[in-house]
Design goal:
Strand content: 5-15%
Strand order of the largest sheet: 1-2-3
Helix content: 55-70%
CATH superfamily of the largest domain: Cation efflux protein transmembrane domain
Largest sheet: 3 strands, mixed
Shape: elongated
Length: about 290
């Protein structure tokens, strides 16, 4: 729904930019073009992410969301650079624009952005892909506000460069958001720990469990944002392997991972080891 709405408004703004001569309106239309492409990528990625796991892809296509978000961010960055270059060129010789029509087209764009934000708001907390799409539409809304303000300035004062300044505002909205998405994507792809999780605290809390003597080779990564995975080697008392305590220790460790931390870790794998196991432990498992 958001994709169809955005594509329609993009066409309207392109027509409006050509008719009025407004760079700010064309910049917003170009931004909406990236939204159309970005939302198409997001829709494709979200559809792929729903496909079930297979023997060759045990997590299915969940990481398609991360790849989709990275493509959206790269596209946004390229468009921001193009708008900035054209804005510098127009500062020297700003063309005449028709501010009244710019106001009309800008208002149409803003209304569409508001509807899009409402539609996307529910899923953005659970998916980096949807969050990237939400941020694209949000920046478009702010870009539409910049278009409206610049048109009012031109209408009231006749200062034509206000339109070019508004295009720079759109760029200023695009670049930080793009870098934020790229940082999030990079963090996931580099398999860094979730942002709200302190690995030292995880280790310390696991060590507090009964019969646990040491924790090593501890890793917490994310398949996609919001889907953390934990693996660890846990040294327990030798008696656990003789008197049947091992299953209870495993239950306590998994409950700790799933319930204790701000990021609930439902997917956890613990290798329980006796103290003597370190004698033939691989050097790859410090």
């Amino acid at each position: 729904m958001v994709l169809a709405l955005t594509a329609t408004v993009m066409v309207v703004e392109v027509v409006g930019g050509i008719v009025t001569g407004s760079l700010a309106l064309l910049a917003d239309a170009a931004h909406m073009l990236t939204d159309v492409v970005g939302l198409t990528i997001a829709l494709a990625a979200a559809t792929l992410a729903l496909r079930p796991p297979t023997p060759r892809r045990s997590w299915g296509y969940r990481r398609a969301e991360v790849l989709g978000a990275s493509l959206q961010a790269g596209l946004l960055l390229a468009v921001g650079v193009l708008i900035a270059v054209e804005g510098v060129r127009r500062l020297a010789a700003p063309p005449e624009i028709t501010p009244g029509l710019v106001l009309v087209f800008g208002a149409v764009g803003l209304a569409a952005n508001v509807v899009g934000l409402v539609l996307l708001s529910r899923g953005r907390a659970h998916s980096i892909n949807t969050r990237a799409a939400f941020l694209e539409v949000a920046a478009d809304g702010l870009g539409s506000v910049a278009v409206l303000v610049s048109a009012l300035v031109v209408l009231l004062t006749g200062w034509q460069r206000a339109d070019v300044v508004a295009s720079f505002v759109v760029v200023a909205l695009i670049v930080p958001r793009t870098l934020s998405i790229l940082a999030e994507v990079t963090r996931v792809l580099l398999e860094a720990a979730p942002r709200d999780l302190d690995l030292d605290q995880v280790r310390a809390h696991l060590l507090e469990q009964a019969h646990v003597r040491a924790v090593h080779d501890l890793h917490v990564t994310e398949i996609v944002a919001g889907l953390p995975v934990l693996t660890a080697h846990v040294v327990v008392e030798d008696s656990c392997f003789r008197d049947g305590h091992a299953p209870q220790v495993l239950d306590a460790l998994q409950a700790c991972a799933a319930e204790h931390f701000p990021v609930g870790i439902e997917h956890s794998t613990f290798q329980l080891e006796p103290a003597s196991h370190h004698q033939h432990e691989s050097p790859a498992h410090p």
